[in-house]
């Protein structure tokens, strides 16, 4: 057998080359990566300790990068009295820096320890630098979890800047910055940092600049914030509540995550903001009283002698009022105000929600405990009362949160609007309003159908028909209320938890669908009542004063529906097309004065003011030993009416024509409607 010839298949060749690529990359890698060179006078044993003994004249900068060392022992840099910068970076093998590794470095101005594998905060307390504005940079050390107490004491006796970003910090302990004069403290991008002890700044002076962006901090320490002039907290979504604004006495610039937090810094007392040199009383007085000339030297000449002003470089800006700049600014949907923007609304919303809850709860209790048969009107009335009861719960929830957050809503806005409370309130109000409108429409159609087909008993609406009709209303209302919870618009846009988000096309369609449904329902209700009125208006059947009485009752029904729906629908439709004609502040007036009108009026117009409901109410009270005499009167009246009907049924004249019978029936049916009984005794 001869040797098989070498494969000439191109695929075989490509596979062979593919296997060689990793080996080639490994050969080229050292040329690509930076060289790991141990600088003089250091010794860098592989997987061992780093030592840089001194003294060494002329050594001002020490760069230790990509080294294989694992440990920096105590006294590693002792004697380097002239070194100004030490950079320990990209040394992943480094897992431990011993206590006192940085000892007595009097001229050190910059120390950077970044991207290492150390697991404990390095000891920098024995540096004893005397340089002004010492900078310590500790970054991208993912295994350091804590900044301990007194971590920087003894590092420098002048001002310092701390850049502690991108680490694995989870906690800043008490007295962590004790003994320091902080110019700037950067804790940004410590994505696991959740807790900063309330006394973390105890014993420290400053900082003037604090950056906690992209952290999970849930609260700032209440002590040590007085000296902060610049606060940066972008993408700090867990920080939903700020300390009292009185703690930030010198704050001039704030860049925050939530617009509502900027409301905390509005209308601060002027004495806390104006005149950076206000400690000098003469400067303050002259700033207020002296009119400066174009050359701006009038102020200074009023305070100092001319000989003292020679050689000065004037800073004319210090007399300008120091106004706080805060971003992001509150938008039109979340103005700087409480949930109830006006005090009179705060009173009215309590009255209205109590009225709606008590009225509808009473109607439900009476209807469900009545010994009379559950008729279609009673069934519909139960649905209407439940819907209006839910509206009362929504108003109660809004009123309660407003009373709890009054004067400090900016600190609770995020928790409230993004939490389950606002979602529940939004669900209640949308479900209640749509079910109420739907049920009112069905009640009106049922009354119109009953009167139109009064003599045709086979056309009468039965309970078996009403149940699926109302089941459809419940499903429709639930679907409309759930959609904002799954991303079609949302309830978090405004403090009153209404679906006002119309940024997307789908959200616009959603809001317009609700509004069109309400407008169509109102038109149907008006049309039905007008047809009912003309159906029963007959000179032979009713006197003129009865016509007037019917018209007045009809007007009340239509007026309550109109005042509830018209203003809200008009302004909401304009807002849906992104042409708002009213502010959120003024829309709260509509919310309290117009939006719940039906929920308050319905139990009275359709039940409580009717004779049948009053009868059932007193009969229910008599079971508990109350109003027995009044209940007995209703029983006797009912018994007398029953006897009268029986006698008329057997002995009455049968001469009445079919048309007269029909008109009489219409009159009886419509009287029941306009008295708002919504009951039938048959």
Instruction: Estimate the helix proportion, in percent.
Output: 40-55%
Our count of helices gives 17
Low-confidence stretches: 1-33, 270-284, 290-303, 312-316, 540-544, 650-682
Helix-and-strand structural type: alpha/beta
Rg on CA atoms, Å: 40 Å
Largest sheet: 10 strands, parallel
Q: Tell me the total number of β-strands.
A: 17
| Spatial sequence of strands, sheet with the most strands | 3-5-7-8-10-12-14-15-16-17
State the shape: elongated
Mean pLDDT: 78
What secondary-structure arrangement, pairings included, does this model have?
Blueprint: H1 10-32, E1 43-44, E2 50-51, E3 61-65, E4 71-72, E5 85-91, E6 96-97, E7 110-116, E8 134-139, E9 146-147, E10 159-163, E11 171-172, E12 181-186, E13 195-196, E14 209-211, E15 230-232, E16 253-255, H2 259-262, H3 281-289, H4 298-303, H5 306-309, E17 325-327, H6 343-369, H7 376-405, H8 409-418, H9 420-452, H10 463-482, H11 505-536, H12 544-576, H13 584-593, H14 597-608, H15 611-622, H16 628-651, H17 658-674
Q: What are the defining features of this structure?
A:
682 residues, ten-stranded parallel sheet, three-stranded parallel sheet, elongated, disordered C terminus, luteinizing hormone receptor activity, leucine-rich repeat, cell membrane, transducer
């Amino acid at each position: 057998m001869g040797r098989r010839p070498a494969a000439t298949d191109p695929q075989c060749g490509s596979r062979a080359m593919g296997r060689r690529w990793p080996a080639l990359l490994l050969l080229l890698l050292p040329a690509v990566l930076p060289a790991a060179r141990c600088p003089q006078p250091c010794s860098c044993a592989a997987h061992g300790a780093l030592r840089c003994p001194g003294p060494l004249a002329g050594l001002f900068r020490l760069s230790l990068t990509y080294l294989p060392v694992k440990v920096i022992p105590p006294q590693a840099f002792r004697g380097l009295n002239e070194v100004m910068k030490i950079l320990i970076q990209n040394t992943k093998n480094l897992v431990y820096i011993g206590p006192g590794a940085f000892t007595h470095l009097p001229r050190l101005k910059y120390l950077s320890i970044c991207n290492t594998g150390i697991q404990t905060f390095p000891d920098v307390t024995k540096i004893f630098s005397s340089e002004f504005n010492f900078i310590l940079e500790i970054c991208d050390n993912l295994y350091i979890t804590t900044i301990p107490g007194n971590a920087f004491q003894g590092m420098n006796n002048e001002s310092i800047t701390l850049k502690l970003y991108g680490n694995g910090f989870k906690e800043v302990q008490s007295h962590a910055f004790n003994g320091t004069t902080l110019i700037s403290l950067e804790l940004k991008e410590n994505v696991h940092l959740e807790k900063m002890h309330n006394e973390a700044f105890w014993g420290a002076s400053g900082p003037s600049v604090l950056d906690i962006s992209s952290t999970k901090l849930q609260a700032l320490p209440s002590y040590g914030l007085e000296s902060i002039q610049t606060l940066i907290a972008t993408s700090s979504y867990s920080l939903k509540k700020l300390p009292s604004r009185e703690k930030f006495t010198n704050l001039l610039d704030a860049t925050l995550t939530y617009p509502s937090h900027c409301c905390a810094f509005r209308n601060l007392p002027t004495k806390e903001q104006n005149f950076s040199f206000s400690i000098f009383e003469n400067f303050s007085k002259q700033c207020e009283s002296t009119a400066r000339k174009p050359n701006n030297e009038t102020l200074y000449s009023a305070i100092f002698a001319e000989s003292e002003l020679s050689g000065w470089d004037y800073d004319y800006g210090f007399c300008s009022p120091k106004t706080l700049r805060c971003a992001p600014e509150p938008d039109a949907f979340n103005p700087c105000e409480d949930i109830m923007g006006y005090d009179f609304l705060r009173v009215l919303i309590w009255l209205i929600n109590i009225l709606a809850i008590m009225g509808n709860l009473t109607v439900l209790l009476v209807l469900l405990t009545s010994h009379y048969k559950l008729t279609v009107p009673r069934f519909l009335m139960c649905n209407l009362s439940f819907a209006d009861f839910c509206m009362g719960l929504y108003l109660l929830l809004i009123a309660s949160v407003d009373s709890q957050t009054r004067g400090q809503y900016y600190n609770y806005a995020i928790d409230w609007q993004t939490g389950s409370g606002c979602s529940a309130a939004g669900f209640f109000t949308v479900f209640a309003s749509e079910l109420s409108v739907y049920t009112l429409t069905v009640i009106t159609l049922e009354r119109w159908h009953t009167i139109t087909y009064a003599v045709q008993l086979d056309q009468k609406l039965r309970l078996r028909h009403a149940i699926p009709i109302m089941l459809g209303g419940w499903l429709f209302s639930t679907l409309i209320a759930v959609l904002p919870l799954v991303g079609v618009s949302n309830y978090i846009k405004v403090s009153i938890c209404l679906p006002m988000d119309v940024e997307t096309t789908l959200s616009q369609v959603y809001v317009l669908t609700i509004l069109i449904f309400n407008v169509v329902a109102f038109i149907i209700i008006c049309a039905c009542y007008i047809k009912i009125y003309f159906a029963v208006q007959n000179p032979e059947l009713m006197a003129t004063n009865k016509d007037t009485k019917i018209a007045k009752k009809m007007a009340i029904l239509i007026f309550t529906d109109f005042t509830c729906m018209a203003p809200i629908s008009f302004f909401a439709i304009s807002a849906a097309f992104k042409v708002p004609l009213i502010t959120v502040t003024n829309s709260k007036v509509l919310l309290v004065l117009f939006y719940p009108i039906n929920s308050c009026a319905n139990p009275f117009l359709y039940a409580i003011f009717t004779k049948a409901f009053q009868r059932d109410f007193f009969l229910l009270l008599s079971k508990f030993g109350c109003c027995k005499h009044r209940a007995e009167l209703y029983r006797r009246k009912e018994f007398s009416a029953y006897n009268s009907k029986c006698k008329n049924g057997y002995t009455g004249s049968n001469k009445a024509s079919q048309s007269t019978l029909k008109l009489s029936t219409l009159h009886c049916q419509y009287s029941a409607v306009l008295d708002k009984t919504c009951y039938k005794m048959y």
